[in-house]
Amino acid sequence: MNFEGISLKKNFWRFVWPSVVAQWIFALYTMVDGMFVARGVSESALAAVNIVSPFVNFLFSVSILFAVGTSTIVAIYLGQGKHLEANQANTQNLIVSAAVSLLITVVMWLGVNPAVRFLGATEATMEYARHYILSILPFAWCFILSYTFETLVKTDGYPRFATIVVSLGAVINCILDYLFVMVFHWGVAGAGVATGISQMIPVFLYLKHFLGPKAVIRFAKPSWDFGQLIRVVKIGLSSGLTELSAGITVFMFNHAILRYIGEQGVVSYTIIAYVNMIVVMSMAGISQGIQPLISFYYGKQNHEVCKKLLRYSLAATVGLAGAAFLACMGGAQLLVNVFISKELTELRAYSASVFRIFSVSFLIVGFNVVGSGYFTAVERPKESLVISLGRGVVILFAALAGCIALFGGEGIWWAPTVSEAVCLGITLLFVRGMAGREERERIEDGIPAEPAGR
């Protein structure tokens, strides 16, 4: 793992683009199952897949927690030249992640009926939901380990290989979904098994990498450092909550829209939520792409390079945010027309209108996501957690309540922009405070500014 033999800007793009593409591919996983189930089974089966989706979201949030926490610690160790400690951390993460996935599997298997009722299953969707979740449970370890290993492979200096493996998993998912649902008629269970297998194959490919001759990060006898495990959880918690908060956000919006606008508003929000997921995951791709680089240079105490990488990521965020905003403003009606039949002219017009309002938040969201990721990479989990919880739950809930109180139901569509703007102010305060502390420490220690790299 040698980040210093290539120009800093080239290294930045070498890590960011594969990470962004990987996020787009992960977004497809949730959409492909639904598409085949809707066409091959029934609308009730599709509803069941959507009902169970928060559990899948929970699995990915656990995976991200361990992935971000472990990869940050491993990258810092490598930056400090502590290869044995990095390998021990990697091995401990593998064992703990596998144990957690086994615990989740057993608990959910024993309590599947109350679990699906809690998730919202009705009489019409109960059996579909049970079959889908039971078909996924044997592969829970794959969901958790696949993303953890993907992140560590990037940290090992092979982001392109990680992207190829993720892409292969997505292709396998599409093929198996078609075979199991449309050809073999296995129903929702077939969709669940297809997704599970498409997660399992990448796990073994990543294991082959870590056991191969090119890997710098390897497996070693773990030191069983409980303090390090707590450190992993603290570092990765904000990123895990960012993933989990997506489901909480949809839950809050659906309830508010049903109460103040009605069911047609939920149709409009469903379309918006698809696009919002792609935009937010794109920003998360930038954030997670720069994490190994920043953690590596942070481990070497080269703060100037860390700041330069942050500037690169903010520039990329501006480009992506601007492109997303302009595309949504100009193409809102076209996108809405894909989902809503031409007979519903009023709903089409309303959906396009509120879509444009919601898309203003796309101009801001990336700065908060990247800011949270930066604080994670430099081991400042408290700041990262405040940003993640703020934009995903606390500030958003307050903004939603405030906008409804001031503007009624139509205020719902402005709540994300208000929430992201308030959170951006907090992010800027944290960045300014950290920069001031680092400058004071540098002056007190008499350390000259480091070269910022090429």
TrEMBL record:
Top-rank taxon: Bacteria
Keywords: Antibiotic resistance, Cell membrane, Membrane, Transmembrane, Transmembrane helix, Transport
Cellular component terms (Gene Ontology): plasma membrane
Topological relation to the membrane, as annotated: Multi-pass membrane protein
Keyword Phosphoprotein in annotation: no
Location in the cell: Cell membrane
Organism whose genome encodes this protein: Enterocloster asparagiformis
Molecular function terms, GO-annotated: antiporter activity; xenobiotic transmembrane transporter activity
Broad class of where this protein is predominantly found: membrane
Transmembrane segment boundaries: 12-32, 52-79, 91-112, 132-149, 161-180, 186-207, 228-251, 271-297, 309-335, 355-377, 389-407
Similarity-based family: Belongs to the multi antimicrobial extrusion (MATE) (TC 2.A.66.1) family. MepA subfamily.
Protein name (database record): Multidrug export protein MepA
Entry-linked Pfam families: MatE
Gene Ontology process terms (BP): response to antibiotic
